[in-house]
Automatic annotation (TrEMBL):
This is Amine oxidase domain-containing protein. Residues 7-241 form the Amine oxidase domain. GO terms for molecular function: oxidoreductase activity. Transmembrane segments: none annotated.
Amino acid sequence: MDFDEKEWMTIDQGMSRLPQAMAYLVGYNNITFGARVTAIEVTSSNKIGITALSYNGSVNPLFDRIILAIPLAALGMIADCPRWSVNKEVAIRSMHFEALYKMGMRFKTRFWERVKPKASEGGQSTTDLPIRWIVFPSNGIGEDGPGVLLVYACSLVVVYAPRTSSLAIRCIATMYEDQWDGDKKIDVYDLLIETSDAVWSASTATGDATFLPGQFRARFDVARQREGDIYFAGEHISYHHT
């Protein structure tokens, strides 16, 4: 996906097809989906042992090398793990992860593209309302039929889904109060079809990795350094992280 391109490009039928395609290449017998790692150990023969809980029970594979691409917040929750250098342990424990919340809201029409004079064709808007950010779809602009808005919030104490859904639609209604889509007054309550949300703060990895003041210089390179044959990767230790 590149916003400089004239045509929108994405993976047909969803992003889950990417790991499925990779699994096909390496062989389904060589990959385990949906397993939670509970232990990492270095054996006496310098192999890396992993213990993970899968749908079919515990699995205990051995590897010559491994790449840990899970967030450091999740890595810190693995109790049985090698003891690394003090600086590495501090980097793992101190990286800040903000609560992250997203909700997709599907409407009968793409009314936001026809509001005059401030139509929204892709991009995002920031508001001081509780929902904070609204992301407008950059694909299908100008098409008839339903469309989806994305409500995006971080550092927000997320309440249970029904209340959050009602809060989100109320905020959208406030933003489009007394506005018109052609000759029809916009009623977002009537236009709403369904909502679907994800609360990353409900899991151990929470949400968005953020370096606090002074942490990038002190923690970034240390967090990236390998420990023997254990390597570390991921968006949270990338120069281009969010």
